[in-house]
Amino acid sequence: MALRVDRRGRLVAADVDERIDCEDSGYLMDSLWFETRLRKHRTFKEAGTDSGDLPDDPDVGSGNLTGDYVDTASGRFYGARKRIYRRVKGKFHTRLTIRDGSGAAVHECDTGTVTFTAKLAKR
After folding, report:
1. Smallest Cα–Cα separation from 94: which of 67, 70, 74, 68?
2. How far apart are CA 21 and CA 18, in angstroms?
3. How many CA atoms within 13 Å lie on the side-chain side of 14?
4. Residue 85 burial by CB count (10 A; 0-12/13-18/19+): exposed, middle or buried?
């Protein structure tokens, strides 16, 4: 996981590598990326949906497989020293519905709610 705050302290960008467990077809490794505004009390929250093409696999479903993602992420910066917030804690959650070529849902996948904590990296 990588979190970045812009120089003005108003935007937070995150890049998260995640493992999405599926009900009966193993798991998928994926990456969640978002950019959102840092709110008044040093909090951030982002939710979104996305669709994407998945590699075709006859064991998963027939036809052109697609994935419908629903992502949420939130957190709060804390631990200020010299007006620089050095720690963050939060959570994220991703759900994925895999659809076959006809558009029917063939698998449901979910990360569950994942909590995280991080601290400012030393330069």
Report:
1. 70
2. 10
3. 28
4. middle
User: Cα(92)–Cα(47) distance, rounded to whole angstroms?
Assistant: 10
Residue 92: both structure tokens together: 């994220």
Are 59 and 67 within 8 A, CB to CB? no
Dihedral (CA of 93, 116, 122, 38) sign: positive
Write out pLDDT tens, residues 7-51: 888 899 999 898 888 887 678 888 888 999 999 889 999 999 999
> CA dihedral in degrees (78, 80, 84, 87; nearest 10)?
-40
39: nearest Cα among 70, 82, 1, 85 = 85
Alpha-carbon distances, residue 82 vs 7, 9, 79 (angstroms): 16, 15, 10
Q: Which two tokens stand for residue 83?
A: 């007006």
pTM above 0.85, yes or no: no
Residues 96/109, Cβ–Cβ less than 8 Å: yes
**Distance between CA 84 and CA 87 in Å, rounded?**
9
